[in-house]
Amino acid sequence: MKTLTAFFLAAAACYPQALDLKHLERLAGKAAESTNVTLDGALLQLGAKFLSAEKPDEARVKKLVAGLKAIYVKSFEFDKEGEYSEADIASVRNQLHAPEWSKIVDVRSRKGGDNAEIFIKTGGKDIGGLVIIASEPKELTIVNIVGRIDLDELSDLGGNFGIPKMEFQRTPKPPSKDDE
Amino acid sequence: MSYLEEDLKAALRRVEAPEDFAQRVLARAASPEARPASWWKELGRLLRPPRVQWVALSVIASVLIPVAGTEYRKQRQVRIEGEMAKDRLVFAMRFAGVKLHHTQQKVLGLTQTDNRL
Fold first, then answer.
1. Where are the alpha helices (DSSP H) in chain B?
2. B78 phi/psi in degrees, rounded to 5
3. Which residue of A has its CA nearest to B91?
4. Domain that holds residue A80
5. What tens digit of pLDDT does each residue of A31-41 get?
6. Counting CB atoms within 10 angstroms of each CB, which of A42, A123, A167, B97 has the fewest?
7. How many domains are contained in chain B?
8. Nearest CB to B85; choose among A47, A130, A169
């Protein structure tokens, strides 16, 4: 147990900007679709190594991830509203303390219930980390990028490509008794 | 003088060597056959009959082929894992990019429905 604790402490020390998102894992059981990407350390380096500098799409990503240490994405899509609580979001938000973290965007829509918050970790002239919390009545997304990141480049990447259709990590909800 | 002395004198009389004698001796000395093989070469020759060479080759092949196969499988596994990590990385970055872009659009009040999403 002590070894395990030491391991987690060491891991936390390696990626000080990484958030603890374990409490959100229970939402995967309720979600119609869940996306979970965890890329850190050697796996991130390995993936970056396989990005081609020749292909324009991959070259842009390669340039972006050069200063990154870890990427965590958790996204849940629900069939109905109210499957996640404000406490779930608050537990993420509470980890983002000033002055280390700054909230640069806070969009709240009373009408549609679409909310978005962007936090950046500042230190020096570069952005050292990014957290996006995007919540809709039937969807909750947390993105945590650890390391140096260029927001304009990242936004361009999203604006040009859209979300790729990839099936891995997308775990459809098991059919319930009502579906049968 | 006795007959014995005569015979000895005849047998030991000076005879001139043929003209090409020296050349033939030098040529023979220079030829590989003339050189006596060293003892370790002789020993090596004894230990290297054709069958032993084939056995040695078989042993080397039986060691090298599995090692090369294992190495190939290892490299293939690394390549597969690397490709998977790359796909996840591209997906994660684009996903993050889309969320960021979408939020920026909201801030700018220019949110448009993007059919590509």
1. 3-11, 21-30, 39-47, 50-108
2. -60, -40
3. A164
4. 33-166
5. 888 888 888 88
6. A167
7. 1
8. A47
How near does any CA of chain B get to the CA of A137, in Å? 16
pLDDT in tens, B5-53: 888 888 888 888 888 888 888 888 887 665 667 888 877 777 766 677 7
8 Å CB contact between A64 and A149 = yes
Residue of A nearest to B79 (CA): A50
On whether residue A172 sits in a domain, the answer given is no
Which chain B residues are within 8 Å of A51, Cβ to Cβ? 86, 89-90
The answer to whether residues A68 and A149 touch, using CB atoms and an 8 Å cutoff, is yes
Q: How many domains does chain A have?
A: 1
CA A162 to CA A104: how far, in whole Å? 23
pLDDT along chain A (180 residues), means of 10: 47 58 84 87 86 83 84 90 87 84 83 83 79 90 87 74 42 46
Domain extent, residue B100, equals 3-116
Contacts 24+ apart (CB under 8 A), A116-119: A116/B99, A116/B102, A116/B103, A116/B106, A117/A93, A118/B100, A118/B103
Residue A27 lies in a domain: no
Interface test with A, best of B74, B75, B98 (most A CBs within 10 A): B98
Strand-pairing partners, residue B83, are none
Examine residue A161 and state whether it is found in any structural domain, yes or no: yes
Question: Is the CB of residue A144 less than 8 Å from the CB of residue A134?
Answer: no
